[in-house]
Amino acid sequence: PYGFSVIEKFLTGARSIDQHFHSAPFESNIPVLLGLLSVWNVSFLGYPARAILPYTQALEKLAPHIQQVSMESNGKGVSIDGVRLPFEAGEIDFGEPGTNGQHIFYQLIHQGRVIPCDFIGIVKSQQPVYLKDEVVNNHDELMSNFFAQPDALAYGKTPEQLQSENVAPHLTFTGNRPSLSLLLPSLDAYRIGQLLAIYEHRI
């Protein structure tokens, strides 16, 4: 049910980020820091794409939404005066919920092109499922993946490490690949308002 009280919480969450963006110093301003990371990755390091990877099916439409907002807003190759920019600007945004993406394009992210990643996790599950004889619930397994992926992107595995684990050497991945993690306490209207406002101000 989406009534006034839910929308009010959503708007209150968005407003909290509006106020943070307006008043926080740059060194601790979340949207500013994320925006600067995008400029650094695209314009200085030359990484043209960004993957948005929420580890919850409830945010399956987040990546397409941000794709439209970001690529429409920042998809220009000229300055406000119509002069061609001497550098690349704007990102190619794409994404899927985490475990879907792991079976679609994570191989490329780990072993192919360098694609900066935004990992989005939720501390408290909306609906944890406990199966008989399972030690952990589905959300705990999901969050294990959420924490493992940025770690693997950062550190990689050498052929020697893989050999010691009896894993084929062609599965080597270099590490030193950029990512960031946003961890929300829960996924309610207030937090969704915050999340969308963070991305809006980042853009």
UniProtKB/TrEMBL annotation:
Family named by the database record: Belongs to the GPI family.
Name of the protein in its database record: Glucose-6-phosphate isomerase
Gene Ontology BP terms: gluconeogenesis; glycolytic process
High-level lineage: Eukaryota, Viridiplantae, Streptophyta, Embryophyta, Tracheophyta
Membrane spanning residue stretches: none
Pathway annotation from the record: Carbohydrate degradation; glycolysis; D-glyceraldehyde 3-phosphate and glycerone phosphate from D-glucose: step 2/4
Record PROSITE patterns: P_GLUCOSE_ISOMERASE_3
Enzyme Commission number(s): 5.3.1.9
A GO MF label: glucose-6-phosphate isomerase activity
Reactions catalysed according to its record: alpha-D-glucose 6-phosphate = beta-D-fructose 6-phosphate
Keywords: Gluconeogenesis, Glycolysis, Isomerase
EC primary class: isomerase
Gene3D superfamilies cross-referenced by the UniProt entry: Glucose-6-phosphate isomerase like protein, domain 1
